[in-house]
Amino acid sequence: MDDTFPPTAVPAPRTGGGAGYLRIATEEAFATPELIRIWLGMVGDYDDPGFRSLWGFYGTSTAERPRFVLESLQDLGEKRLAAMDAAGVDRQVISLTSPGVQVLDADLAVAQAALANDRLAEACARHPGRFSGLTAVAPHDPKRAAAEIERGKNRLGLHGVIINSHTRGEYLDDPKFWDIFEAAQALDAPIYLHPNTPPKSMIGPLLEAGLDGAIWGFAVETGTHLLRLITGGVLDRFPRLKIVVGHLGEALPFWMYRLDYMHAATVRAGRYERMKPVELKPSEYLRRNVWVTTSGMPWAPAIMFCREVLGPDRVLYAMDYPYEYLADEVRWQDDLPLTVAEKKRFFQANAEELFGLPGT
Question: Quick one: DSSP state of residue 167?
């Protein structure tokens, strides 16, 4: 690897499908300048140590990588396209980065989500062959969030929903949020459950050790959120709901046996009021309702394991731009021990089918 940032591979992968498939990256982030100004203005006062840790870093660090990330998040034009070309990415599925609007008061959150969706839809219209987008919502107001999901799909041409995990420490298994799931299921709109920093009630030991972010805390927080949906019966009530999680499933595929065994034992014991019987095993919901992407996890043994235990139709390529941007990672996934047809499903067809993207 060279010493430049972003680092490059030699030779770099090329766009255009010459390998027998297009590369569709499915967890690629953006933020409006307005929202970034709001976040940075909150860093000193907002009572959430995870938020302060994350956006205090990106707002004040002078290191090269966080400067690159902050600038790249705000670009929905030529700089992003050039980065895609340099890494061999044909299309990005773009979504509002964490924490989204979920740290804001409800009315401001609704307004900023709508603004972000308008901006993203405009960029997708300018570059229809390269950009697709997901609808951001403000879960604080589930009815208005449901309406925004409908607007995003039917009026803006967006292809799913982004929710940056918990909303001020509240999780979506609470029935008060279920208007969101009802709308997403009715519109066949996948929900990308993206990480947030752990809430104040969870973050202490992680933050103390420097483990609160992408290294571990994100997976703990978002994996917990998904498990709450599974064990809380949400996927029995909404059996056709499609949920997408990054980073190869936030570790849950590797725990499937233990989740099944201990969930059954805990239900039999009647130990917890909220741990009731559900229709399927946890692993069966993961195989029925969940898709995972390789964002930030370009590691062949883990990718192949997830393909084995979840099924090849459930694992999609992602880069995690601009937080993780390395052309070598694309080449490593090009080198997976798969046939060209299997790679086309991994890099292209799964994303086209799941998000309803235009095909080739």
Answer: B
